[in-house]
Amino acid sequence: xxxxxxxxxxxxxxxxxxxxxxxxxxxxxxxxxxxxxxxxxxxxxxxxxxxxxxxxxxxxxxxxxxxxxxxxxxxxxxxxxxxxxxxxxxxxxxxxxxxxxxxxxxxxxxxxxxxxxxxxxxxxxxxxxxxxxxxxxxxxxxxxxxxxxxxxxxxxxxxxxxxxxxxxxxxxxxxxxxxxxxxxxxxxxxxxxxxxxxxxxxxxxxxxxxxxxxxxxxxxxxxxxxxxxxxxxxxxxxxxxxxxxxxxxxxxxxxxxxxxxxxxxxxxxxxxxxxxxxxxxxxxxxxxxxxxxxxxxxxxxxxxxxxxxxxxxxxxxx
Length: 318
What we know:
Layout: E1 13-15, H1 26-53, H2 60-89, E2 93-95, H3 96-129, H4 134-137, H5 140-158, H6 160-166, H7 183-187, H8 195-228, H9 233-241, H10 244-266, H11 272-297, H12 299-317
Antiparallel strand pairs: 1-2
Helix pairs in contact: 1-2, 1-11, 1-12, 2-3, 2-11, 3-5, 3-6, 3-8, 3-10, 10-11, 11-12
């Protein structure tokens, strides 16, 4: 390709990277990786199905849980093709447009999950602060509007990212650092100034995960103040127990996210293996662990899983 046309050139494909240094073990890693995706998709699918079928779960807290499961399934389905392609078939190529599409959906579903965690925190605030008015404040209409707001915010905030990437020229390296496409990873390969991309990425992160994390923090400060005002110790423990699952979900989402951000900013001296493992944890851990947490805490979901296994066993034996 002529040098004078570099400004108009983009790679037809990017090369994805699995886990550096473990290439010879991909065949064996494919099985646990496949199991992780099965657990994520099955677990979140059971949550959605159970909430839909059990009338006792038709309350705002479980509607928000259904949204969280939807976001987790979306994240899993976004990364599944490229991850399994690498570890099962050693296929590392992804088209430029396919990479941009994957990047958009990964960041969108991540923003949706962050927004849902804020909605769940607000749900806990109302349930503890004013339990008698809980049903009148969080009506089905209000929950639906909150869901639409979370989805709209994620779609609109991430919408410019593909266009900001596609305007950049790529004519040198096309090797990405991860098994999937992330904005910051693709951006570093550009052969032009990425100041606009970096600035917009920072604004998007502050507007979504930054503001969301502060909202969750303030919500729990309010919850703790409200709980400490409850006279009986048993009442305080009962109120806090309703927040355990949500606190676990927040930690499951934000701890890997913070780890990835810190390593990306300050860990340039660390090995590529560390960067790859943290990035994989950021996208794989929440979809797998969230269903486990809520299955342990929700007897209806446990019963649904048991019924599925019993039916499967009967069908297999029959």
